[in-house]
Automatic annotation (TrEMBL):
<dbReference type="InterPro" id="IPR050618">
    <property type="entry name" value="Ubq-SigPath_Reg"/>
</dbReference>
<dbReference type="InterPro" id="IPR006594">
    <property type="entry name" value="LisH"/>
</dbReference>
<dbReference type="Pfam" id="PF08513">
    <property type="entry name" value="LisH"/>
</dbReference>
<feature type="domain" description="CTLH">
    <location>
        <begin position="63"/>
        <end position="120"/>
    </location>
</feature>
<dbReference type="InterPro" id="IPR024964">
    <property type="entry name" value="CTLH/CRA"/>
</dbReference>
<dbReference type="InterPro" id="IPR006595">
    <property type="entry name" value="CTLH_C"/>
</dbReference>
<dbReference type="Pfam" id="PF10607">
    <property type="entry name" value="CTLH"/>
</dbReference>
<dbReference type="InterPro" id="IPR013144">
    <property type="entry name" value="CRA_dom"/>
</dbReference>
<protein>
    <recommendedName>
        <fullName>CTLH domain-containing protein</fullName>
    </recommendedName>
</protein>
């Protein structure tokens, strides 16, 4: 690397001077934090933050608790309880969001199959999901994918670990099952549904469905990586504490 190719050195003093010159509103920062706490469901933290800053939350904080109960129910596989809670919180949501309603019913079917309740699952599929498939043809591929779980051989799990459900064990004993079918049983499937429902509930309250704070942090990481090829500058190395790593600066001592 030639002298002209060397990364530009930005000293700690220069960096801090630029930071002080930047116009960042404390109110805007507080709003970002409050938005994150509300969307992610940190009710107590939102209450404390509101008390400390004097910033009123943009929603009734009691609805946070209700949204978190719904999210936890889905993540624990209790879809019926989640559906009932949704209807208590917003009785019109599932009527106006047919795809979301289908996803809830789909997950409820998956949980029944997971528990080995095959007859109940078949009846549920015919009464609840088949109708939705006829009403909304675009949902049929998802329905067909879910129905493929009925073809999994549950008899293969007779000597399986007691920690596994019948269906999980059968999947483990059958490596030929397509990945997209297998993914229906993963914990991420529940998480995706919980996140989608949380976003829909927030949108129904005229609130942002996603917090801007994580996106800004990703942007910061990306910007640092982009800049470091051309400059040696103070980098944030710990986003929890705000610690910086400062570049080595040339010695100011003159040779004797």
């Amino acid at each position: 690397m030639t002298e002209t190719d060397k990364p530009v050195l930005i000293t700690k003093k220069e960096w801090e001077k630029k930071m002080q010159e930047s116009e960042i509103s404390t109110l805007d920062m507080n709003k970002l934090i409050m938005e994150y706490l509300v969307i992610e469901g940190y009710k107590e933290a939102a209450e404390n933050f509101s008390s400390e800053t004097g910033l009123a939350p943009c929603v009734d904080l009691e609805t946070i608790q209700e949204r978190m109960l719904i999210r936890n129910s889905i993540q624990n596989g209790n879809i019926q309880a989640a559906t009932e809670l949704v209807n208590e919180l917003n009785c019109e949501l599932l009527e106006t969001e047919p795809e979301l309603f289908f996803k809830l019913k789909q997950q409820q079917l998956i949980e029944l199959i997971r528990e080995g309740k095959i007859e109940e699952a078949l009846e549920f599929a015919q009464e609840e999901l088949a109708v939705k498939g006829e009403e909304f043809p675009e949902l049929l591929p998802e329905l067909e994918k879910t129905m493929a779980l009925f073809a999994v051989d549950l008899n293969s799990c007779s000597n399986s670990s007691p920690k596994l459900s019948h269906l999980d064990s059968a999947i483990a004993h059958n490596p030929d099952i397509p990945e997209d079918i297998e993914q229906l049983l993963g914990y991420k499937q529940r998480q995706k549904l919980a996140s989608k429902l949380n976003s829909a509930l927030l949108a129904a309250q005229n609130q942002p469905s996603e917090s801007r704070l994580p996106s800004l942090l990703y942007l910061l990481v990306w910007s640092q990586k982009l800049l470091q090829s051309d400059a040696n500058f103070p980098k944030i190395v710990n986003f929890f504490t705000g610690d910086f790593e400062y570049p080595s600066e040339p010695s100011s001592k003159k040779p004797s």
